[in-house]
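From the methods appendix. Each design record in this collection lists the tokenized structure first, followed by the designed amino acid sequence. Records were kept in a plain field format so they could be parsed without special tools. The example shown here is representative of the layout used throughout.

RECORD:
FOLD TOKENS (366 positions):
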């Protein structure tokens, strides 16, 4: 499939999926919302050789499917237990890696969907569209972390409710697919930042958030060096060399979204949504913080992926400041345009994650 045909396929699948999901949101129809995840699931399941690490995952599949459990336990540092289980399920079902990629995509989409339903936001369809255009394509490359990102997104919904037990359970499950998720366990205690007795929530919230962000900027590089010395995390050592320049331009976009979002969303904050919106701002800020440190360490930059969905949420919810019909349409078109342009530049032009050309797998052949 040529590059133009591949681009049309990706955009068509993501737009169809978003339309189904959006219609389900509008009609409050759960069946239609669930149907929305089918197109991208098929896209991810039926691909061959698409994604930078596709070949690496095939090698891991061959290694784990042919070896015994004892062999895996002797060399468990090469992949997490959750991925090992996916390999065994895939090997049992068909004897090849196709179900492994399909199940991984399903887990990413399902946990994102479940998480999105738990955040009481006003524009979930726009967030879903941005997820498909910006983050989901990356999961075709970062398969294990793609699963972990969605599970962490679901786990962080319990941050708002201050339900530590459920938060801990799902963070552990996320860590079974990518060990880096365990680093985020202390994030739960940032929920204290959402408490304020002042009517102007920004009066105390933003100074405290800025202080926390500054501390993270200072201490995370040292903490990262210590973590990389642990056997369980040593396999991520390849990420600490340099983040490269390919994706760093996105940091400017993230900063612009964060600043404009904080300014705009202030007009929407009230007693009923205070915890939700301050939580979104906290995690969108962490995305920028980890992205900034990520200039010197790709491993730290990839930690920022766990918070990337909150940047989408901040951008989408900011459109709520425009109350008239024309303003709503214009702001929604801006968000949609942002998603499409981002996909075309990052994945089609710059070639991130090696998504082009898209190749369909038919009977195990290209």
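DESIGN:
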């Amino acid at each position: 499939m040529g590059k133009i045909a591949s681009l049309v396929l990706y955009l068509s699948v993501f737009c169809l999926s978003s339309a189904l999901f959006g219609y389900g949101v509008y009609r409050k129809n759960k069946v239609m919302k669930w149907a929305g995840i089918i197109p991208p699931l098929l896209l991810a399941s039926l691909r061959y050789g698409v994604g930078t690490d596709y070949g690496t995952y095939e090698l891991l599949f061959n290694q784990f499917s042919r070896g015994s459990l004892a062999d895996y336990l002797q060399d468990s540092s090469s992949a997490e237990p959750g991925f090992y289980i996916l390999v065994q399920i895939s090997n049992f079902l068909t004897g090849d890696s196709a179900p492994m990629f399909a199940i991984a995509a399903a887990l990413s989409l399902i946990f994102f969907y479940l998480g999105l339903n738990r955040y009481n936001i006003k524009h979930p369809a726009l967030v879903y569209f941005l997820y498909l255009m910006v983050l989901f394509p990356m999961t075709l490359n970062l398969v294990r972390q793609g699963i972990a990102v969605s599970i962490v997104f679901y786990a962080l919904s319990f941050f708002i409710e201050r339900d530590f037990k459920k938060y801990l359970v799902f963070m552990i499950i996320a860590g079974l697919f990518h060990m880096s998720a365990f680093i985020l366990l202390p994030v739960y205690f940032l929920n204290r930042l959402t408490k304020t007795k002042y009517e102007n929530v920004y009066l105390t919230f933003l100074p405290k958030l800025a202080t926390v962000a500054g501390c993270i900027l200072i201490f995370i590089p040292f903490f990262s060096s210590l973590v990389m010395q642990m056997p369980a995390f040593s396999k991520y050592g390849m990420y600490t060399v340099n983040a490269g320049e390919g994706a760093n331009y996105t940091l400017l976009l993230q900063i612009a979204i964060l600043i404009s979002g904080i300014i705009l969303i202030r007009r929407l904050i009230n007693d009923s949504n205070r915890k939700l919106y301050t939580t979104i701002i906290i995690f969108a800020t962490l995305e920028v913080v980890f992205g900034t440190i990520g200039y010197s360490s790709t491993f730290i930059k990839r930690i920022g992926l766990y918070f990337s969905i909150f940047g989408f949420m901040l951008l989408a919810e900011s459109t709520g400041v425009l109350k008239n019909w024309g303003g709503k349409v214009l702001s929604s078109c801006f968000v949609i345009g942002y998603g499409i342009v981002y996909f075309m530049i990052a994945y089609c032009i710059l070639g991130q994650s090696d998504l082009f050309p898209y190749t369909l797998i038919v009977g195990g052949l290209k």
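APPENDIX NOTE: Residues 173 and 350 are 33 Å apart (CA to CA).
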